[in-house]
C-alpha cells in the first residue's frame, strides 16, 4: 500500500485553486486501487472543504491536524496557550488565529481585505469569488481574550513589507523551542507549534497506517512543503514551484496547472 500526500494551491488544484472532475476522479482511483491519498495543506478544515475535493484523508494547517477519510481526528496539535498570549499581547501584529473551522483576528475586515487582494493570485476572478465565500469563516475585531480561550492550531500573518517578514523570522528564531514558521511564500508567515510540520505529519500518518517511508509519495511547490520534500525519497515538485521546493524535491514534474500531480500519482499506482 502506498501513501500519496499532496499540497493543494500551486500543486494539486487547478489554476482557479479548486478541485474538479479530473482531480476528484483521480483521487477516487487511488483509493480504488487500495492506496491512500491525503491532502497536506496549510489551510484549515473549512478552507480545505471549499476547494471542492472528494472525501479524503487530510493533513491540515501545516501538520497541526490529521483526519481520516470519514473526518475522524487521528491526531491534533494545538498551539501552547502561552505562545498565543505572546502573539496577542506582546507583538504589534494583527495575526489570523485558526481553529479547525474558523479564523479569528483582532484586525478589521477592510484592512485585511485590502492586504489580501494584493496577492498576485487574487487577480483571478474565480479565486476572488471563492475568497468572498471564505470570508464568512473570518471573524474580525475579536476580543483577544476570546481568541485566547479557543484551541488555536495555526497562526497566519500577511506581511506587507520585507522588514515585517524579517521581524517574524527573528521572532520564530527567538522562540524556536515553541513555534515553527513554515510559510508557503515569503509574504506570508505561517506559525504552528514546536515540531508541527508537514513532514512530521506525513510521517505520523504513514506510521499510523503502517506504510513504509519508501512507499510514501509527496508533492509540493512552496516553502511550507520543504519539510516533507526533504524527508521522503519519492518527493516531487511541479516545474512551476518555488526554487527552494525544486531544490528540496528529488524530482521535478510538469506545471501544476496541467494536472501533472494527479497524472503522476496515477502513473505510480
TrEMBL record:
Enzyme Commission identifier(s): 3.1.3.-
InterPro entries: HAD-like_sf, HAD-SF_hydro_IIB, HAD_sf
Keywords (A to Z) from UniProt: Hydrolase
GO CC list: cytosol
Gene3D superfamilies registered for this protein in UniProt: 3.30.1240.10, HAD superfamily/HAD-like (3.40.50.1000)
A GO term, aspect molecular function: magnesium ion binding
Signal peptide positions (record): none
NCBIfam families: HAD-SF-IIB (TIGR01484)
Record's protein name: Cof family protein
Species the sequence originates in: Faecalicoccus pleomorphus
Taxonomic classification: Bacteria, Bacillati, Bacillota, Erysipelotrichia, Erysipelotrichales
Amino acid at each position: 500500500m502506498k501513501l500519496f500526500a499532496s499540497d493543494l494551491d500551486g500543486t494539486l488544484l487547478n489554476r482557479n485553486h479548486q478541485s474538479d472532475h479530473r482531480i476528484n476522479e483521480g483521487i477516487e482511483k487511488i483509493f480504488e486501487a487500495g492506496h491512500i491519498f491525503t491532502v497536506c495543506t496549510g489551510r484549515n478544515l473549512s478552507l480545505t472543504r471549499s476547494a471542492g475535493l472528494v472525501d479524503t484523508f487530510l493533513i491540515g494547517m501545516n501538520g497541526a491536524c490529521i483526519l481520516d477519510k470519514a473526518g475522524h481526528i487521528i491526531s491534533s496539535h494545538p498551539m501552547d496557550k502561552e505562545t498565543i498570549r505572546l502573539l496577542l499581547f506582546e507583538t504589534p501584529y494583527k495575526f489570523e488565529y485558526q481553529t479547525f473551522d474558523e479564523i479569528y483576528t483582532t484586525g478589521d475586515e477592510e484592512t485585511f481585505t485590502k492586504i489580501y487582494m494584493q496577492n498576485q493570485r487574487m487577480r483571478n476572478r474565480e479565486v476572488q469569488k471563492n475568497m468572498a465565500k471564505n470570508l464568512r469563516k473570518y471573524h474580525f475585531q475579536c476580543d483577544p481574550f476570546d481568541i485566547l480561550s479557543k484551541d488555536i492550531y495555526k497562526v497566519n500573518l500577511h506581511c506587507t513589507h520585507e522588514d515585517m517578514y524579517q521581524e517574524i523570522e527573528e521572532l520564530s528564531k527567538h522562540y524556536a523551542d515553541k513555534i515553527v514558521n513554515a510559510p508557503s511564500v515569503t509574504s506570508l508567515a505561517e506559525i504552528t507549534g514546536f515540531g508541527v510540520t508537514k513532514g512530521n505529519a506525513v510521517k505520523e500518518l504513514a506510521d499510523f497506517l503502517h506504510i513504509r517511508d519508501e512507499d510514501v509519495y509527496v508533492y509540493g511547490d512552496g516553502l511550507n512543503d520543504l519539510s516533507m520534500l526533504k524527508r521522503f525519497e519519492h518527493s516531487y515538485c511541479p516545474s512551476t514551484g518555488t526554487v527552494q521546493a525544486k531544490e528540496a524535491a528529488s524530482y521535478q514534474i510538469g506545471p501544476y496547472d496541467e494536472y501533472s500531480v494527479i497524472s503522476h500519482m496515477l502513473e505510480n499506482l
